[in-house]
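2 proteins. here.
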Amino acid sequence: MIGLDIGGTKIAGAVFDVNGVQLDACRDTTPADYESLVRTCVELVAALENKLTEKASVGIGLPGMIHHHKGTVIAANLPFMTDKPFRSDMSLKLGRPVMTANDANCLALAEAIDGAGKGASSVLGLIMGTGIGSGFINQGKIIDGPNGIAGEIGHLPLPFREFEDGTLVACGCKQKDCIEKAIAGPALARLYAFITGEAELDAKDIADHARAGDSKALKVLDRYYEIVAKAMILPLYAYDPEVIVVSGGLNTLPGLYEEVPKRWSKYTFFGVPKTRFVQAVHGPMAGLRGAAYLGRI
């Protein structure tokens, strides 16, 4: 199984055996135009396949929402990919079917198959970093919907908003009050400034200060975890996942996995949710591993 993970600056590739053991890996710089991107992806697949005795399945994680039937990218973080027939172009060049999925869906798939969500019937994969991405897996299958956006909670409004949750911020989706603008890394930095009256502090520094017992950082995280708990109410009601698996740059914040579930029951009518809220185990490789697994679902 070969997987490619296309990012804004690099394309990572790896080949795995049927048991999920990584056999080889490679990477290249993300090109600045569509034709070069296709060519680079074909070359990476060839390099990974060079050591195999037969052709492998190919799955590719893409940085945007995918039109499920056409295989085109509806809204890409690489604008030159938008509406291009990437999946069919890759299939034609490689002479075999190629599977594509949103990178958050790939993360969720990897964690559902042999990560923190292994054995669960339903898994929401949540990327908490500079932005917010998420995907939903049910019975081992990606649920993406006709618009390719099922499971994406980042551009839904934060529920139960209060003044203490900070200022409303305009989003690139042309709305305000999106979950992405409430719980992503830049939102935590803004929350620090809002609560303390001081300059913004990035998430890593806030976490370090909190671990050192700094009262201001602890106060900010206390409010932040309340906001994250509110945000999780949307997937709880919409999907009722057995597990929410968290990846991304914010997934090591101190107390995150204890504090968020402790708070979310106050926003539900059905008591304490049984959903588990856990850290991803595959780390930065989760999206790449999930891309490779696209060929086996």
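next one coming up
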Amino acid sequence: MTESGGGSGYAGAPLPYMRWLRAFVGAAPLLMTCVAACIRDAQGRVLLMRRGGEASELWGFPGGAMELGESVVEAAAREVREEVGLEILPERLIGIYSSPEYAFRYANGDAVQVVVLFFECRVLSGTPTPDAEEALAVRFFGAEEEPPPLRLCCQAKLRDAFAWRGEVFVR
């Protein structure tokens, strides 16, 4: 996958976008565009991280909300860099996850229905290291292992990561 363009966004764009938008809509349900990264080790295991903050009992793929002025490729690279310290390149789309069943409410009451673009990524450099804020721990998991506690959307992504053969999943 290649990226066209390359601008860093809109001059004066409100960042972070969701926080800016919440000032207008409060806790009302919003669609939130997100990215997630599938990063594999040499054995084909996938990297999961234990989330920080209110979801600290849950694990998931590195990723998060896209900011205004970013492409999905830029968002995935930024989120992975921030959370687990890797430089990556998203190369192929594994799936798109937008089902209302993946909606959730944050502890502060903000409701979201996510639209997640899940990418197969190549590591360019770095060693997986949790940032101790958004990621409390990182670990590679194999298909045969019992997964840690995951949000429903991450459960689907984990299944798809191991079942993926090049066809994009749409869920």
